[in-house]
Amino acid sequence: MVSWQVEVGEREVALDWLERGRARVLLDQLAEARIDLRSSIPAAALAPLEARETDARSRQATYRAGITSLGSRSDLSTAERDERITVLEDSLELADADYRQVYQDIKSASPLWQDLLTSGGEPIGLAEMQSELVPDDGLLLIYEVGDNASHVFVVPPEGEELEVVSLDVTSESLDELVPRGAIRTADGLSGLSTLRGALFPDGLWDRVQGAGEVIVIPDGALHRLPFEALVVSGDGEDARYWLDDGPPLRYAASATALYNVERRSASAGSGVLSVSDPTFRLEDILSGAQDREPVIKARADVVRAGFERAGGTLDRLPYTAEETETIRSAFGSEGVVALQDLDATEQNVREAVGERHRYLHLATHGLVDERRGSMYASLALTPVSGTDPEPDDDGFLHLHEVYGLDLGSIALAVLSACETNVGESYAGEGVFALSRGFLAAGAQRVVATQWQVDDRATAVLIGHFFEVIAEAERVGEVVDYARALRDAKQRVRTDVDNPQWADPYYWAAFTITGQR
């Protein structure tokens, strides 16, 4: 590993740790090469592992269905129902643990995985960062947040000198400063102004304003901060945000992960696959599908196990259908495959993904169950099985299932759902969220969200975003996706018919990761 020595004040900072654990973003490398870990495991060793995997996934689906079914049992008292649900929840946790363990055992048994652990995944050097990652008019900002000291590494284009800026924050102070969840004006903006000053000291903000684009590699609590919501001047209704006065933004888990994504070239995909407005209510499913076998029988609301435990139900999202209609108008109906209503099932999505589209648009509920970990973050789709579900078609497209998709033709995946960029954070490797899964599965870029979004404002934002993309393609221009997303957010922020949308809650949640 190359060690860069950079003088900061009176001491030298060794940049060996610049990439540290981040260098080995192995899932990204495996997806890029389309390597199946199992292909290198001897058949005799693989068979029992896959049998364990099948058993664990079958048990997961059965326990989830059982929990859902118990919720509608009117013949049971509340105490009896809760007691039985608790037993099934405990069983589900064991099945989850078994699945995670067999997933690790498959990796451990794979010579390909072991080879990558021992000889692959080396971090890229400074020269490669500057020549391959940083646009000619851009900056790459790599944040390192520590318990006692923090820095931002300012990587300019090729031919210019790296700068290391000391930050007067620690992991503890940042954790207190960075908002958790949605950012709203009503909660006060002084913290966002303080953050801007803390993260961009000594004229760094002036340098950022002069850049054509900025790529941010966050660390620690910064993973939950959309930088465009930072207040750069003013306050309250007069506040000016990065969105107003700063350049377009992209994000990356690490420089090496971004380098791996930048080297991808999408296979020839065409058109848009748009999935929106799934149906979650039993009466809707039955009234619109008389010719289907009604396998969801027990209740009116299809309430999923994990979501039910959190006290919620899955409401329909009618404005997501507007997103699809705008996409149809922008690209032409012949260029859009739409899965909506009863057709927005997990199996239909899997099959349609195989048709090699250029753009993927998924507009539905995003679910994150922190107790079960990022592996079970999911996108909710129209259910087709409630009493005897198949593990691969239970109405949830889970993160661990996303990794198995082939998205090599996808230039851009837009996850127009709640909290699709939220997940577990690992030191040196970033956040493993739904967005990370789509990148690892082969997509060149992913737009995802930091919190639960407003579906009406989102319909306008995503619609305008795709309109800008379609127009650029129509006139033969290279699409600048980060700029297009910035323009779409500004469109929402300045909507004269909806002045409340000026609040960052309505636009700041959307971030873009991946290639320029």
The major β-sheet equals: 6 strands, mixed
Question: What gross morphology would you assign?
Answer: globular
Oligomer: single chain
The helix count comes to 18
Please give the share of residues in helix: 25-40%
Strand order of the largest sheet: 11-10-12-16-19-20
Mean pLDDT score = 78
Q: Would you identify the regions where 5 or more consecutive residues have pLDDT less than 50?
A: 1-35, 116-120, 289-312, 419-432
Task: Report the portion of residues in β strands.
Answer: 15-25%
- How widely separated are the two ends? 27 Å
Strand runs, count: 20
Class based on secondary structure composition and strand pairing: alpha/beta
Radius of gyration over alpha carbons?
A: 23 Å
